[in-house]
């Protein structure tokens, strides 16, 4: 089944002033669409992949034919990463509650220390990539990945991720990635993050 860009569940301008409407239009309608189109084109050249979910494909990149492995890694990664990104944002940012709040406190000390750690991972990611909170066998961890690489390909389950490609912030923040990373917490939909955490614990 061909992949599609999921519609936003909020208005393009809903994340203002932290993320501007123009960035949301370009990022969601153009960048994500390109990852989806390129994914579908690459999957059409790889018989057997079309019945897998994008997450299943990323979990076993070694099984992808070599001729399209690079395209799949980048574009299916881009599709999965962005699908999560839109879902874990919203106009009503706030503080985490429920099991994810407890797990963050237990793992990182408190919310502020966790946020600092994730911001730091995002600032230090050289070039394009993502800063993540992911669940592995050892519990929660912060990591960054280059390009569109997904934690799923490392056997981890992404719980929250921030896009530090310049296309995510350059129109508003220009070179100030650190400022964007700090501002982004204002638009995190913690209910969705908590749902993803609870689902990941059951896997
Ligand atoms: Mn992006």
What features would you describe in this structure?
- The chain is mostly helical.
- It has helices at residues 21-44, 54-59, 66-87, 99-108, 111-124, 170-173, 177-184, 190-202, and strands spanning 129-136, 139-146, 157-163.
- It has a three-stranded antiparallel sheet with strand order 2-1-3.
- Strand 1 (129-136) and strand 2 form a beta hairpin.
- The protein starts with 20 loop residues before the first helix and ends with a helix.
- The mean pLDDT is 97.
- Manganese (III) ion is lined by residues 27, 31, 82, 163, 165, 167-168.
- Manganese (III) ion binds next to helix 1.
Number of domains: 2
Cα-based radius of gyration, to the nearest Å: 16 Å
CATH class of the largest domain: Alpha Beta
Fraction of helical residues: 40-55%
**What is the topology, as strand order, of the major beta sheet?**
2-1-3
| Inertia-based shape | globular
Write the layout of secondary structure elements.
Elements (H helix, E strand, L loop, with lengths): L20 H24 L9 H6 L6 H22 L11 H10 L2 H14 L4 E8 L2 E8 L10 E7 L6 H4 L3 H8 L5 H13 L1
Antiparallel strand pairs: 1-2, 1-3
The site of manganese (III) ion has 7 residues, from helix 1.
